[in-house]
């Protein structure tokens, strides 16, 4: 699984996600890599058999929307409801996707997007996405608290 993640995450088209912030101060690429790793960790913990390449590619492309949703100038209305479709559209333009990968990208925002995941890979990425987002936001909040404390004491 590490080989699938590494080989796909180093492609130039995928590396473009580094320029976009996802949660807190985490880049979109780093977030997607984290989601891939967390997805595999959940699968191992639950003793689930998964299609590793499809899980890796779907996880790495689930947020391939390619804009900075944190910037008011480029923000799309209702980002949480629409970015999965945009990510799928962008991914299909760049890559040949199988049915599982398309399902992962399109439905990773379940239950916000009401379409039910069809594959276990989709459910894993959806859960891992929420876990990773919370961890990234907590890490960012912790970093801000430390920075404020430093400023308060003159550092």
Q: Explain this structure to me?
A:
The longest helix is centred in the C-terminal third of the chain and has 33 residues, at 120-152. The protein is globular. Helix 3 (28-45) runs antiparallel to helix 4. The model has no long low-confidence stretch (mean pLDDT 85). It is built from 7 helices and no strands. 63% of the residues lie in helices and 0% in strands. It is mostly helical.
Order of helices and strands: HHHHHHH
SS-derived structural category: mainly alpha
| Net shape | globular
Low-confidence stretches: none
Distance between the amino and carboxyl termini: 43 Å
Beta-strand level of the residues, as a percent range? under 5%
Helix percent reads: 55-70%
Tally the beta strands.
0
Layout of helices and strands, plus pairs?
Elements lengths: L1 H8 L2 H4 L12 H18 L6 H10 L17 H16 L4 H9 L12 H33 L3
In short:
This protein has 155 residues and is mostly helical.
Search tags:
single chain, 155 residues, mainly alpha
